[in-house]
Amino acid sequence: MATSFGIALAIIAVGMTAQDRADYSSSARPGTLVVRFFSGEQAGAVRAAIQQELPGVPIAQREGPREYRHFSASAESVGLLEESVYPHEVIGDEALLRYITGDQSTPYDEGRAVVVTTADVKVDSVTIRYDVTGNNGPLASKSIPAIGARTIDPNMQTIFVPAKVVRDLGYQLEPDELIVDPSLHRISASEQERLDSRLGDGAQTYVERGFQASTSWQVVAVATLLIALYGALTAGDGKATSSRSGRVLRRAGDGTAATFRWFGACRAGLSAACGTVLGAVAGCPIGMLLIWPLTASNSWESPPRVPFETPWLTIAAVVVGLPVLAAALGGLLTRARVGGEATVTP
């Protein structure tokens, strides 16, 4: 039972990891530090804390309206951009534009929008539709000059609008995110810990390190296999060898310690082999049957399913390795007593 549970858990965990990896979407460029979830009043203190922890490192700033007001931007020559990290349009400063493109030489003009894509596009203008009043009335529109720029990360495609343009329309902006460009500085885990300690509950830090597979299931799987090993050793312990089996061995063999050790190893190895083979036969179909419903998405937009690979090498290692380990331990824990009787030390 322990072996079947451990093998089924391994099959399910490997499948869930593959599905989670396929569903993973980065929240920033790899290596980026993002500080968010702070109020407008705390923005200055949060920026000062970052500067104290990372002196001399430039900080990009993404901004948004202080109160909800409709704001959108579009370019006639560019279709709908993929929305991953940012929405279709983003408001910020010069450092934010160069973080999005990944190119510190990207031209910046505080009165000109930039259409950031992975393809070469020619853009002359961007149309902004906005509602400063918030009365849900007819939207006003304004056309501003624009250029196209390439990005090194396909998840960063968006329309960049300088903060000055948005303020000139009458919006009151406040920082939404403070960003450290990985092209300028890659924050270490220790630096992030110190920054978290400095910020406390005033803000949240995030470092994009890509998909990180969970390993907690491995602890449970190893624990179940240890239970299986203990069960094999218990089933093959030497209580029977202390009397009747011991006398049989003395008649059949030479009665030496080596004979008793070999007998203990065979008992433990055989017990483990029976358990692991039966456990694998039961655990494999259980894991394969459960993996599909356990990886089903509960969101409205179901992500595509990925093929699940059964960890046959791991299963084979368990089926072969557990009996071998049990036999080795069974032989080591068996000792001959003076007088010819055999026992197994716990």
Write a compact overview of the structure shown:
This protein has 346 residues and is of the alpha+beta class. The chain is built from 9 helices and 12 strands.
What does this 3D model show about the protein?
It is built from nine helices and twelve strands. By secondary structure, the protein is α+β, with helices and mostly antiparallel strands. Helix 1 runs antiparallel to helix 6, helix 6 packs across helix 9 and helix 8 packs antiparallel against helix 9.
Strand content: 15-25%
**Order of H and E elements:** HEHEEEHEEEEHEHEHHHHEE
Poorly predicted residue ranges:
336-346
Mean pLDDT: 86
Gyration radius from CA atoms, angstroms: 32 Å
Q: In angstroms, what separates the terminal alpha carbons?
A: 22 Å
> How many domains?
2
Sum up the overall morphology in one term: elongated
Characterize the main sheet: 10 strands, mixed
Report the strand count: 12
Tell me the structural class.
alpha+beta
Classify the helix fraction into a percent range.
40-55%
Number of helices: 9
Give the spatial strand order of the biggest sheet: 3-6-7-5-8-4-2-9-1-10
Characteristic key phrases:
346 residues, alpha+beta
Topology summary:
Elements: H1 2-23, E1 33-36, H2 43-53, E2 60-65, E3 71-74, E4 89-92, H3 94-101, E5 113-117, E6 125-130, E7 140-150, E8 158-162, H4 163-168, E9 173-180, H5 189-199, E10 204-207, H6 216-235, H7 244-252, H8 257-294, H9 312-333, E11 334-336, E12 342-344
Parallel strand pairs: 4-8, 5-7
Antiparallel strand pairs: 1-9, 1-10, 2-4, 2-9, 3-6, 5-8, 6-7, 11-12
Helix pairs in contact: 1-6, 1-8, 2-5, 6-8, 6-9, 8-9
